[in-house]
Each structure stands twice: as C-alpha cells, then as structure tokens.
Design a protein that fits this description.
two-stranded antiparallel sheet, mainly alpha, 13 helices, 305 residues
Amino acid sequence: MPSLSSDVGIAALAATVAVLVFGFFRVRRRRKFPAYGWIGIGTVIAAECMLFLHAEPVFTYFTPTAWSAYLLIADASTFAVTGRSRLRSAPLTLARMALLSIPLWLIFEAYNLRLDNWTYVGVPKNSAAALFGYAWSFATITPALFETADLVQALLPPIPIYPWKISRGAENVLIVSGIACLVVPLCVPRTAASYLFGLVWIGFVLLLDPINRRLALPSFLGDLSEGFGRRLYGFLLGGWICGLLWEFWNNWAGAKWHYTFPMFQRQKIFEMPAPGYLGFLPFALEAFAMYVTAAWLAGWVKRVK
C-alpha cells in the first residue's frame, strides 16, 4: 500500500496532469493526435503493468523506458496543439540534445561524489548493462524538460510583461554569484557541503544565462529584456511537472535513486524530501542555460545576429 507521503505525491501529480489535460482540450484545434503519441501512452501503460509484475528487463530499466515514452507523448501533444514539435521539425536537434544530456547530467553526478546527496540501488551488477541504463536514463533528462516546457508554453494563455532593464553590472553580479554557488560546496568541509546542493541547483543558471545573453544566444535574461516571459514560465512549470514524474516513477522502479542528504528525511513525498521539489524549478532553468552553452560550444546553436 502507498504510504501517506506517496498519497500526497499521487494527489499532486493527478492534479497537475488534470490541469494539463484540461488545458490540452481547451486549446487543441481539430488536429490529429500523432500515432507515435498513442504508442507512447501504450508503452507507459504496458511498462507500468510489467513494473508491478517485476517483469524484466522493464523492472530494472523502467525509468528510461517510461521517460522515452513520455517524450513521445509530450511531443505529440505539442504538435496536436501547435502543429509544430521538436521530433517532427528538428529530430536531429533532439537527438543531439539527448546526447548532450548525458555529460551535462554527469556534472551533477561529479558534484554528488563530494556532496553525497543521493545514491543508486538496484542497478545491474554487469557493468555494461549498468552503463547502458545510466546513459539511457541521463539522455532523457534535458529532452524531457524541453519537451515539457514546449507543451506548457503551448497551453499557456498570453502573459504580457514589461521589459526588464538589465544592466551589465547586474549581469556581473549574477555571474559572480553563480561562480560562488558552484565553488563554495567544493571548498567547505564535506559535512557542511552535503547541506549545500541547493547552491548547485541555481549556480549554473546564474553563471551561464548572463553569458548566453552577452553571446546573443537564447537566454531568459534576453527574453525578459524584450518583455517575453513565456519561455521562463514554461521551464519553471516544466521543472515542476518533470520533478513530480521523476519521483513518482522512481518510487516503484527496480533500479532507482535514494536521497541521502542530512535533512528533511522525515518529510518525504515518494523518495524526495518535500522541500526538495522546489529545486526542480531552478534546475529546469539551468538545464536550459547549460544546454544552450554546450550546444553553442559544439557548433549546434548559432548566435542571434
């Protein structure tokens, strides 16, 4: 039976999904829902059944299986609303995003070697099988956030905002703050560092988003300076949605993560201590900023002239 914390999580997820479904049917035009979206829905249902039957290999590889199917559902939903989607319009870009997602997430794994905030259990003992599962799982992280943000932006009503006046001095403060957030957890004693992972969740967006703006690359600061807030809201809400799904699916998966940081362990919703869900919002922002910078360095994103 689900615990009380699981009940709270399931209720929060059900409410979130209900809002998304309502928004989808509210704005959807008479555009056909693509077949690959139905394949995604069928795959999730089948994977859930196999999960609770402990049927291999799905039981062990449930997380990447579910997220791969989710990508199809989110992409198909965006297409049904807007007539555009990443999988249909830019499949190569989406594939590159999945590829970059692996080393980008490994940066956080490297931080975790010192901060020791989570650990993995149920991972295959065979090293090749384990590496395959890690790579497949990590490859879905950035695409999931982007696809979810696309869907949220498609469902959002117009949100006019006044352009922000963002000075170069303010950008410098953000950059220095980002550097501090990323360096301090590495410099303090390990017992103190384990409490500071929140700094890592905001450090990269503080550092990279102003730099992306200066390079004329896509950035939240650039959007806000032009009175465009839709992408910011899309990624914030996308982080919340993905966070709930990550923890919901992880809760029952065969290979999963446990959180080991030294606080809030008695206030869990699924595996995640309740306050930790707030971290998914800035994480979505920095996943965007990190991808833009990395894709530009790889020559896959061009400056806006």
